[in-house]
Amino acid sequence: MNRPLPEETNEDARAQEDLCKWLAANHIIPTVTINRGHSYNAPYTIDQMSPASKIVFMGSCGGYRMIHDILEKAPDAHIIGTKQIADAPVNNPFLKLIMEKLRNGNDIEWIPFWKELGKLVTDKIFEDYVPPHKNLGALFIKAYKRQMGE
After folding, report:
1. Which domain holds residue 93?
2. DSSP string computed for 91-138
3. pTM
């Protein structure tokens, strides 16, 4: 993850480009993509994410609507997004929990993960977040492509 920089001077874009170059030069292939920015940043995040992304967290408003674009870039991605407004009372516990699981080498099993997250999040906005195992749009697109041999 990178830290936000002033948008007015395009520093965010330059930092992201530098990060992508550094990752490529060091043969590091990210498998987790996190967009916490505003919804207008989401297409830029998707453009720069690795096709090897396995977990994609669209923690921006309406991130759920980016399913098609995400799967075009990373066909095997497990997508977490929100149908409405995204907010720190959900995003922060999600990120903390997933990073702790990954740091400890645990597999991410979405049903128990989501139940555990639900105990940590008290904000009603959590109801608008869609986990991978309930992301019917993504599941349908993946099944359709598999059936069509794509």
Report:
1. 30-147
2. HHHHHHHHHHHHHTT----HHHHHHHHHHH---GGGGGEE-GGG-HHH
3. 0.87
